[in-house]
Every structure is written in C-alpha cells, then in structure tokens.
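Contributing: when you submit paired examples, paste them exactly as shown. First protein:
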Amino acid sequence: MDKEILRLSINKFLRLYFKSCKEVYKEIGLDKISNKQFRYLNIIYNNENITASKFAKIAELSKPTVTEIINRFIESGLAIKNQSDFDKRVSYISLTTKGEVLATSNVIESSRFTDNVIAKLNSDELETLSKIFDEME
C-alpha cells in the first residue's frame, strides 16, 4: 500500500479525533481554544520558569499581547503566575494541571503515527485499516 494514501486515511481519523477533542473542550468550557493558543500553551509547557518577556521573545509577540494572552489563560484556569523569591519584580508563568493536560493533548503527528502503524501491520491489514478510516468520514 502506498504510504501517502494511508497517511491521508489516517488524517481522516485524526480529524475525527480532533473533532471529539473539541467536543470535550466545549463540555469543559474550553471550546474557544485556537491552534495559536495551543502553541502558546506549549511554549509555557516547554519552558520552565518562563517570564512574560521570554514568552514574548519565543512567540515573537509584543509584551502587551503576551500580557493579554497570559491573563486569559489565568482567568481560564490554565496558567498561574508565581512571583520570584529573589526578585519581586519578576513573575514566572506556569501551567495548572488543566493547562498541562490541554497543552499536551495536541501533540499527535500523523506522519509519525503512520510510520508506527506501517511498522506493526502487514499490507492486508493496512488496506483494511485504510478502508475503515475511509468509512468513518
């Protein structure tokens, strides 16, 4: 089976997966999370002791925009600010458990997943799986 055909079929499955995720996010009041916001959550998640200035630099955003983003995350219960013990002018941003779960829920890459599937299934099984994914749409 052609890898590209299978990858496209798996993408159909992933679209269904992400649609389900959006339904869950809606149920918990997070249905307005955009792809950019997922990216921003991941920046915080991947940078321990990140400040607003460092966040702005990594995200290539202005400091006022970053302040607005961080405040929205705090209001949504996704992030918290902790004042530095050594310099009261410095605050570190970190994710709450809810924010961490959300940040890490969008890490699926279809190409890697496809490689893993190809490694585990024979050609006939891949054909069947592809047909199953096609029927799900």
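Second protein:
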Amino acid sequence: MENFSTTVEKYKEKNIEKVYDVSLRLFAMKGIQKVSFNEIATNAEIGVASLYRYFKNKKTLIYGCAIYHLTKIIEDIKPKVNSIQFQDKLAIEQLEQLLNFYISFYKDNKNFLIFLSDFDTFISFNKMDDELESSYNRLYKSFYILAKRIYNKGLEDNSIRNDFDFDQFYYSIASSLFQTCIKGAVSPSIIPLDLLITTEQKLKTQIDIAIYYCKERIK
C-alpha cells in the first residue's frame, strides 16, 4: 500500500504533466508571451497558487515544457531503434530509418513545432538556467549520439562512405530537416512554390539526397 507522501508526489506529477500539455496547446495557439499563468492554471483546472508551487516563474514552466515534450518524443523513438529488427539492418538502412523519424515527428507534433519556433526566439532573450540548459542540450545530443553510432557501424559493414565529415553532414541535414518541419507547421504555404509539394515530400526528398550522399558506392 502506498504511503501518503508517495500518493501526493504522484498527484503532483500528474498535475505537472497536465500543465505541460495544456501549456503546449496554449503556447502554440496564442504564442508564448501572450499566455498568462492564470490562463494556464484555469485551463489545467488547478489553482494559481499550486502552479507557483510547481514552477517558480513562467520561464521555468516554458523550459520545462520544452524538455518534457522533447523527452516524450525521444522516449517514443528508443524502443524502435533498440528493436532486433532495427539492429539487424545495415547501417545505411538504420540511418535512413532514423532520418525518416523526422517525417513522423512532423506529422504528430505540429503544436510542439509551432511552440519551438516561438521558443527559439524566447531563449535568445531569456537566459536558460544552467541545469535546464544542460538537460535540454543533452536531449538534443542523444539523437546525434545515435546517428554517430550508426555511422561507425556503417564504416564496419561498408554500407556508409568513409571519405566525408560526418559531424558536418549530420548537423547540416538535421538542421535542414528540422527547419523544414517547423516551416511546415508554422507557415506551410507562404510562397506559391510551397503549394506544389507537401512538407512530407520535402522531407522525404532531403532524406533521399542525404542517404544517397552517405551510401558507399560499389567499386
């Protein structure tokens, strides 16, 4: 049987998760700066005093929201890349599947992408606490670490070329895919050319080019 403190902690954790979900929806809909603590508390159906007990200020909540939702996305990917089916693939096939996650990421996380577009501006004017910044950067780096592991495997199974700078490649393609995701969520049809091809098609084309670039040629 759970003791009282454990029950209280679980209740608090559940409330915080609800706050993060509500905050993401409001931030995506209205913009980070236009959403108040009172509005978040009302929509999360908790008292403002409770919200201040969970978060010392709005900035802490915003950073927590980014970390919470990014963690959920990464945790969703982990079982897929740790599966036997994934591990049995050639490295170039693993890399293609890893990059293809950007397509599902785009389809399933429109609100988070809209939030991230605003969050990028927010953090340029609001210094992130060292602990939060470390957590945020560690989450982003985890995707790179996985890609690097795949690259090293590719050198062993000869499915990936060994004559290019992988770090330069990774950060270039990851940035390109990420910005395509954000643009698709925030402003998918700003110019007429955007109407000719979907965001999913843009992502797939970028991934195909990236894989062709990395793939070892038969000599």
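If you have annotations for the second protein, write them as plain sentences, like these:
Residues 16 and 72 are 14 Å apart (CA to CA).
The chain has two domains: 1-55, 63-214.
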